[in-house]
Amino acid sequence: MADEELQTYRRCVGLQLEELELLSSIYCAPGELHMLDAGVVADFNEFLKDDKTKPATSLLSHLEYVVKLTLPGKQCVEVRVELPHLYPLLEQARVSVHTTLLGKSKEQRLKNDLEQYHGERREEDAEPYIFQLLSWLQDRIEDLLKRPASEFEVQQVASSDPQQPPATELQRIWIYSHHIKSSAKRQELIRQARQLELTGFSRPGKPGIICVEGDSANVQEFWRTIKALRWQKISVVRTEPRQRKRGFEDFSEQLFNAEEGVMNMGQFIRFLEAHGFGYMKSELFGLA
Predict the structure, then answer these.
(1) How many CA atoms lie within 13 A of 188 on its CB side?
(2) CATH among 3.30.365.10, 3.30.70.100, 3.40.50.720, 3.40.190.10 for 170-285
(3) Backbone torsions φ then ψ of 242, nearest 5 degrees
(4) Do the strands 199-203 and 251-253 form a parallel or antiparallel pair, or are they unpaired?
(5) Average pLDDT, the chain
(6) Which has more confidence, 53 or 169?
(7) Taking every annotated instance into account, which residue ranges of this chain make up the domain RWD (predicted)?
């Protein structure tokens, strides 16, 4: 592992421990903050105290804890926090709320709001934010409790045949990013695509281009997962549903130019045309 990447892991682990210490001083009442595996803290400290050559692969577990938020009327909700090793510099925290107070419709609304909260965080905001998130969650939950459930209910459309499973649909999406340079992100894109049995490619550099195709549910899961990483800018520029066949045999990283961060436009366009996607030069770059 490159020294720069190892230092990124060390920086993230250090920030996570500092944040945990702060949270422990705020949520200090018995049962307010509960570590799911207290041994992880010792492992992290050992990793930081090492001679700076211990690989990041020695980090076998993530920092996970549950924070109990107290609401009016002595009611409580539990917030589970899991921190990927590259939080907060490159990855987002995984946060879930567990409560029976909200009901299904309000719980879904809170889940959507939480996804939006993460989505609005910019890549430049690479600072720990769990305390801010917990404060926001407490205010949001208190607000939801005051409002009628009917405000959030969505009318369900009855299926003509509820026993019929949904048909598998082949879908392709094209994703445009301001840049893709981090080796950790690049590896995560490949890992997620292969895990979800998707084909396509990623083009690192500036701009970064990603194309994935496969089962529509897996394609959308891929998008949900990668957009939760920290990006300066990332968006889906084209969705192609109901495809008859795949355009790629596997998922791989395409390097068109050895110079970091520079795209050889001619090579890339020829690559697209060779796979039958020449029309995407207009969608991606505004070229006729």
Answers:
(1) 19
(2) 3.30.70.100
(3) 50, 50
(4) parallel
(5) 85
(6) 169
(7) 18-144
